[in-house]
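Why does residue order matter? Because the sequence determines the fold. Keep that principle in mind as you read this record.
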Amino acid sequence: AQARLEVVVRRAAAAGSEQEAREPPHPPAELEDFTITLKKTPDLPRLGAVVEPEGDVLEVRKVREGLVQAWNEAHPDRAVKVGDAFVTVNGESDPRQMMEMCKKEAALEILVRRGEEWPITLVKTPEVPRLGVGFEEADGALVLTAVRDGGAVAAWNQANPSREVKAGDRFVAVNGVAGLASELKGMCGAQARLEVVVRRAAAAGSEQEAREPPHPPAELEDFTITLKKTPDLPRLGAVVEPEGDVLEVRKVREGLVQAWN
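Structure:
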């Protein structure tokens, strides 16, 4: 009935609001660097970690009896975990040189980069009865080898793109249980609702940082438009439908909105 309309418009408002409702409020933790100091002794002559070059770092593939395990027991707040990365060893950053130092040097000062870790919730339903992943057991965790379409993990990824789970990530805990890969695997097969802690290696996180744009998407922005119906333009020229507490624009066609645009 109104000839003159003053409308406050929100860019992709309903889609943005829906996404905010689905996604957890915080992104995965930032990579964190810390230093550990190790000294070989007759009782502890070995590093106690399997490390392999991955890009420009050494990725920790396994922690076993030795200096690193002893460090972890003495410093649980700075424990070295599978998926962490050695960034420098005694100031050296070349992966091959770091490997040699770990083998030969008695005193080691290592800059460690923590991998990312974040929680996800997976729900199986009659429509989505499977996780839709391949995985293998490794060092008390489940390492994802593939993420397939049509499963609960793919559904999570679609709803939570900032916390996407990828091949190479690890399920390190499921429904509060950690440390035993066979038990995690059994729970993934038997339970309909899974609260999972996902861990991504530091080397993979660094690679992702290099690929992704440095800035997040722009915030939603409100702006005002003013429309006035005339004999030549008597129609709004937009199909709108209620979506939550707003009207979502579903289509723009000939009329006032198209003329405004």
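The chain has a mean pLDDT of 81.
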